Amino acid sequence: MTSCSFLLIGVTFLSSILNTSAAFAVPSSSKLKPWPANTAPTSHDKHHSSKSQLYLANPNQPAYCEKCGTKTIIRQPPNDERERACCPDPSCGFVSYQNPKIVVGAICTTRDNQKVLLCKRAIEPCAGKWGYPQGFLELNETTRQGAARETLEEAGASFDPAKAKLMAVYNLAGYQVQTIYFVELEDEVVDAGMESSEVGFYKWKDVPWEDLAFPTVEWALLHAKDHVIPLISNDDADDSNIIVQERTKYVDEDGQWQVKEG
Which of 54, 120, 250, 260 could be stapled to 198 by a disulfide with Cβ–Cβ 3.0 to 4.6 Å? Predict the structure, then answer.
Protein backbone atom coordinates (compact mmCIF):
# COMPACT_ATOMS: atom_id res chain seq x y z
CA MET A 1 0.00 0.00 0.00
CA THR A 2 1.37 3.38 -0.96
CA SER A 3 1.81 6.32 1.40
CA CYS A 4 -0.96 8.10 -0.54
CA SER A 5 -3.31 5.22 0.22
CA PHE A 6 -2.48 5.43 3.93
CA LEU A 7 -3.11 9.19 3.81
CA LEU A 8 -6.48 8.71 2.10
CA ILE A 9 -7.51 6.12 4.69
CA GLY A 10 -6.48 8.48 7.48
CA VAL A 11 -8.45 11.39 6.03
CA THR A 12 -11.51 9.20 5.49
CA PHE A 13 -11.32 7.89 9.04
CA LEU A 14 -10.94 11.39 10.50
CA SER A 15 -13.89 12.63 8.46
CA SER A 16 -16.05 9.79 9.72
CA ILE A 17 -15.22 10.74 13.30
CA LEU A 18 -16.06 14.41 12.74
CA ASN A 19 -19.34 13.54 11.04
CA THR A 20 -20.45 11.12 13.74
CA SER A 21 -19.39 12.90 16.88
CA ALA A 22 -22.35 11.60 18.83
CA ALA A 23 -21.47 7.99 18.17
CA PHE A 24 -17.83 8.59 19.09
CA ALA A 25 -18.40 10.88 22.05
CA VAL A 26 -15.81 10.35 24.78
CA PRO A 27 -17.48 9.31 28.02
CA SER A 28 -17.28 11.82 30.84
CA SER A 29 -14.77 11.19 33.58
CA SER A 30 -17.65 10.48 35.97
CA LYS A 31 -18.23 7.21 34.12
CA LEU A 32 -14.65 6.07 34.52
CA LYS A 33 -13.52 3.88 37.35
CA PRO A 34 -11.83 6.28 39.77
CA TRP A 35 -8.04 6.33 39.80
CA PRO A 36 -6.47 5.43 43.14
CA ALA A 37 -4.86 8.40 44.85
CA ASN A 38 -1.40 6.85 44.64
CA THR A 39 -1.45 6.40 40.86
CA ALA A 40 -0.93 9.98 39.70
CA PRO A 41 1.27 9.99 36.58
CA THR A 42 4.97 10.20 37.30
CA SER A 43 7.60 11.71 35.03
CA HIS A 44 7.95 8.25 33.53
CA ASP A 45 4.24 8.31 32.61
CA LYS A 46 4.02 11.80 31.10
CA HIS A 47 4.17 10.51 27.54
CA HIS A 48 1.04 8.52 28.36
CA SER A 49 -0.89 11.16 30.29
CA SER A 50 -0.31 13.78 27.61
CA LYS A 51 -2.84 12.06 25.35
CA SER A 52 -4.98 10.35 27.94
CA GLN A 53 -6.31 9.32 30.73
CA LEU A 54 -8.62 8.31 27.96
CA TYR A 55 -9.18 8.43 24.25
CA LEU A 56 -10.99 6.30 21.70
CA ALA A 57 -9.86 2.76 20.99
CA ASN A 58 -7.55 2.34 18.02
CA PRO A 59 -7.83 -0.37 15.32
CA ASN A 60 -5.30 -2.61 17.11
CA GLN A 61 -7.43 -2.79 20.24
CA PRO A 62 -10.97 -4.14 20.72
CA ALA A 63 -13.49 -1.35 20.15
CA TYR A 64 -15.98 -2.86 22.58
CA CYS A 65 -15.63 -4.45 26.00
CA GLU A 66 -15.28 -8.22 25.78
CA LYS A 67 -17.41 -8.69 28.90
CA CYS A 68 -20.27 -6.16 28.71
CA GLY A 69 -20.12 -4.69 25.19
CA THR A 70 -19.52 -1.06 26.20
CA LYS A 71 -17.37 1.00 23.80
CA THR A 72 -13.83 0.90 25.13
CA ILE A 73 -11.44 3.76 25.78
CA ILE A 74 -7.65 3.71 25.78
CA ARG A 75 -6.01 4.59 29.04
CA GLN A 76 -3.17 3.46 31.27
CA PRO A 77 -4.63 1.34 34.07
CA PRO A 78 -3.31 1.77 37.62
CA ASN A 79 -0.06 -0.09 38.25
CA ASP A 80 0.47 -0.66 34.53
CA GLU A 81 3.14 0.75 32.21
CA ARG A 82 1.13 0.52 28.99
CA GLU A 83 -2.11 1.89 27.68
CA ARG A 84 -4.89 -0.66 27.24
CA ALA A 85 -8.43 -0.85 25.92
CA CYS A 86 -10.49 -0.34 29.07
CA CYS A 87 -14.19 -0.50 29.79
CA PRO A 88 -15.38 2.89 31.15
CA ASP A 89 -18.44 1.36 32.84
CA PRO A 90 -17.69 1.50 36.60
CA SER A 91 -19.71 -1.66 37.16
CA CYS A 92 -17.38 -3.55 34.80
CA GLY A 93 -13.99 -1.87 34.33
CA PHE A 94 -12.61 -4.78 32.29
CA VAL A 95 -9.08 -4.25 30.91
CA SER A 96 -8.21 -5.99 27.63
CA TYR A 97 -4.66 -7.30 27.43
CA GLN A 98 -3.71 -7.91 23.81
CA ASN A 99 -0.83 -10.33 23.27
CA PRO A 100 1.09 -11.60 20.23
CA LYS A 101 -0.42 -14.53 18.35
CA ILE A 102 1.58 -17.77 18.30
CA VAL A 103 2.11 -19.44 14.92
CA VAL A 104 3.57 -22.94 14.64
CA GLY A 105 4.91 -24.68 11.58
CA ALA A 106 7.09 -27.53 10.35
CA ILE A 107 9.70 -27.96 7.64
CA CYS A 108 9.16 -31.62 6.71
CA THR A 109 11.61 -33.53 4.53
CA THR A 110 11.88 -37.03 3.18
CA ARG A 111 14.11 -39.39 5.17
CA ASP A 112 17.06 -38.68 2.88
CA ASN A 113 16.46 -34.91 3.17
CA GLN A 114 16.48 -34.57 -0.62
CA LYS A 115 12.91 -33.30 -0.85
CA VAL A 116 10.79 -30.94 1.23
CA LEU A 117 7.02 -30.89 1.77
CA LEU A 118 5.30 -27.81 0.35
CA CYS A 119 1.68 -26.67 0.36
CA LYS A 120 0.00 -24.33 -2.13
CA ARG A 121 -2.31 -22.07 -0.17
CA ALA A 122 -6.02 -22.26 -0.98
CA ILE A 123 -6.95 -19.42 1.37
CA GLU A 124 -6.02 -15.81 1.91
CA PRO A 125 -3.68 -14.25 2.63
CA CYS A 126 -1.48 -15.19 -0.32
CA ALA A 127 -3.80 -17.77 -1.87
CA GLY A 128 -1.98 -19.55 -4.67
CA LYS A 129 1.42 -19.05 -3.08
CA TRP A 130 3.59 -21.76 -1.57
CA GLY A 131 4.67 -22.50 1.97
CA TYR A 132 5.12 -25.19 4.57
CA PRO A 133 2.39 -26.37 6.97
CA GLN A 134 1.77 -23.70 9.58
CA GLY A 135 -1.01 -22.00 11.49
CA PHE A 136 -2.10 -20.61 14.82
CA LEU A 137 -1.48 -22.55 18.00
CA GLU A 138 -4.67 -23.85 19.61
CA LEU A 139 -5.51 -23.94 23.30
CA ASN A 140 -4.26 -26.91 25.32
CA GLU A 141 -1.51 -27.98 22.93
CA THR A 142 2.26 -27.57 22.91
CA THR A 143 4.03 -25.87 20.03
CA ARG A 144 5.29 -29.25 18.81
CA GLN A 145 1.79 -30.70 18.94
CA GLY A 146 0.48 -27.67 17.09
CA ALA A 147 3.06 -28.07 14.33
CA ALA A 148 2.14 -31.75 13.94
CA ARG A 149 -1.58 -30.92 13.85
CA GLU A 150 -1.11 -28.23 11.19
CA THR A 151 0.94 -30.64 9.08
CA LEU A 152 -1.80 -33.26 9.27
CA GLU A 153 -4.59 -30.75 8.56
CA GLU A 154 -2.92 -29.00 5.63
CA ALA A 155 -0.90 -31.80 4.04
CA GLY A 156 -2.24 -35.09 5.40
CA ALA A 157 1.25 -35.99 6.66
CA SER A 158 1.90 -37.14 10.21
CA PHE A 159 4.86 -37.28 12.55
CA ASP A 160 5.65 -37.79 16.21
CA PRO A 161 5.80 -34.33 17.82
CA ALA A 162 8.56 -35.55 20.14
CA LYS A 163 10.85 -36.02 17.12
CA ALA A 164 10.44 -32.46 15.88
CA LYS A 165 13.53 -30.27 16.30
CA LEU A 166 13.21 -26.55 16.98
CA MET A 167 14.93 -24.67 14.15
CA ALA A 168 13.57 -21.11 14.00
CA VAL A 169 11.78 -18.42 16.01
CA TYR A 170 10.53 -15.29 14.22
CA ASN A 171 9.18 -12.21 15.97
CA LEU A 172 7.00 -10.17 13.63
CA ALA A 173 6.30 -6.53 14.45
CA GLY A 174 5.40 -7.36 18.02
CA TYR A 175 2.12 -8.96 16.93
CA GLN A 176 3.12 -12.51 16.03
CA VAL A 177 5.69 -15.08 17.14
CA GLN A 178 6.41 -18.00 14.81
CA THR A 179 7.93 -21.22 16.12
CA ILE A 180 9.19 -23.50 13.35
CA TYR A 181 10.30 -27.12 13.68
CA PHE A 182 12.27 -29.49 11.45
CA VAL A 183 11.27 -33.13 11.04
CA GLU A 184 12.12 -36.05 8.77
CA LEU A 185 8.95 -37.88 7.74
CA GLU A 186 8.77 -41.67 7.78
CA ASP A 187 6.89 -41.83 4.47
CA GLU A 188 5.70 -39.65 1.60
CA VAL A 189 1.96 -40.07 2.12
CA VAL A 190 0.22 -36.71 1.71
CA ASP A 191 -3.30 -35.46 1.09
CA ALA A 192 -4.24 -31.81 0.58
CA GLY A 193 -6.49 -30.44 3.31
CA MET A 194 -9.11 -27.69 3.01
CA GLU A 195 -6.51 -24.93 3.29
CA SER A 196 -4.27 -26.34 0.54
CA SER A 197 -4.97 -26.60 -3.17
CA GLU A 198 -1.84 -28.71 -3.79
CA VAL A 199 0.69 -30.51 -1.63
CA GLY A 200 3.77 -32.49 -2.53
CA PHE A 201 7.45 -33.18 -2.01
CA TYR A 202 9.85 -31.07 -4.04
CA LYS A 203 13.56 -31.36 -4.61
CA TRP A 204 15.34 -28.34 -3.23
CA LYS A 205 16.28 -27.16 -6.72
CA ASP A 206 12.58 -27.22 -7.65
CA VAL A 207 11.31 -25.13 -4.75
CA PRO A 208 9.34 -22.18 -6.23
CA TRP A 209 11.51 -19.57 -4.51
CA GLU A 210 9.93 -16.71 -6.43
CA ASP A 211 6.41 -17.78 -5.53
CA LEU A 212 6.56 -18.24 -1.76
CA ALA A 213 3.80 -16.85 0.44
CA PHE A 214 5.81 -14.95 3.04
CA PRO A 215 9.40 -13.85 3.73
CA THR A 216 9.46 -16.16 6.74
CA VAL A 217 8.83 -19.14 4.45
CA GLU A 218 12.03 -18.39 2.55
CA TRP A 219 13.94 -17.78 5.76
CA ALA A 220 12.97 -21.15 7.23
CA LEU A 221 13.48 -23.14 4.03
CA LEU A 222 16.95 -21.70 3.47
CA HIS A 223 17.92 -22.25 7.10
CA ALA A 224 16.81 -25.87 6.88
CA LYS A 225 18.61 -26.46 3.58
CA ASP A 226 21.85 -24.64 4.36
CA HIS A 227 22.29 -25.26 8.08
CA VAL A 228 20.00 -27.85 9.64
CA ILE A 229 20.30 -30.61 7.05
CA PRO A 230 24.12 -30.44 6.74
CA LEU A 231 24.35 -30.78 10.52
CA ILE A 232 21.99 -33.72 10.96
CA SER A 233 23.50 -35.44 7.90
CA ASN A 234 26.84 -35.60 9.68
CA ASP A 235 26.97 -38.90 11.55
CA ASP A 236 29.31 -37.42 14.14
CA ALA A 237 27.16 -34.36 14.78
CA ASP A 238 24.87 -33.90 17.75
CA ASP A 239 21.33 -33.07 16.63
CA SER A 240 20.81 -31.10 19.82
CA ASN A 241 23.35 -28.56 18.53
CA ILE A 242 21.02 -27.26 15.81
CA ILE A 243 21.38 -23.49 15.68
CA VAL A 244 17.96 -21.93 16.11
CA GLN A 245 17.53 -19.04 13.70
CA GLU A 246 16.06 -16.02 15.48
CA ARG A 247 14.89 -13.00 13.50
CA THR A 248 12.80 -9.95 14.29
CA LYS A 249 10.86 -7.92 11.74
CA TYR A 250 9.88 -4.45 12.92
CA VAL A 251 9.03 -0.93 11.79
CA ASP A 252 11.74 1.66 12.47
CA GLU A 253 11.29 5.31 13.46
CA ASP A 254 11.00 6.27 9.78
CA GLY A 255 8.17 3.81 9.20
CA GLN A 256 10.34 1.40 7.20
CA TRP A 257 10.36 -2.37 7.64
CA GLN A 258 13.61 -3.73 9.04
CA VAL A 259 14.88 -7.21 9.88
CA LYS A 260 17.48 -7.99 12.50
CA GLU A 261 18.99 -11.18 13.83
CA GLY A 262 17.86 -12.19 17.27
Answer: 120
Q: Is residue 106 part of a domain?
A: yes
What is the reported pLDDT for 150?
99
Instruction: Find the domain containing 89 and state its range.
Output: 58-98
Sign of CA dihedral 52, 22, 9, 71: positive
Contacts with 69 (C-beta within 8 Å, 6 or more apart), sequence order: none
Q: Which has more pLDDT, 232 or 58? A: 232
Number of domains in the chain: 2
Kindly report the length of the chain. 262
Residues 166 and 188 in one domain: yes
What span, in angstroms and rounded, lies between the C-alpha atoms of 61 and 175?
12
pLDDT, residue 161, reads 98
**Please, which residues have CB within 8 angstroms of residue 245's CB and are 6 or more apart in sequence?**
167, 168, 169, 219, 220, 223, 227
Q: Is the pLDDT of residue 19 over 50?
A: no
**Burial call 222-244: b when 16+ CB within 10 Å, e when fewer:** ebbbebbbeebeeeeeeeeebee
- What are the CA-CA distances from residue 243 to residues 216, 240, 249 (Å)? 17, 9, 19
Q: What angle do CA 132, 167, 165 make, to 5 degrees?
A: 95
Q: What share of the chain is helix, strand, coil (3-state, %, to 5)?
A: 30, 25, 45
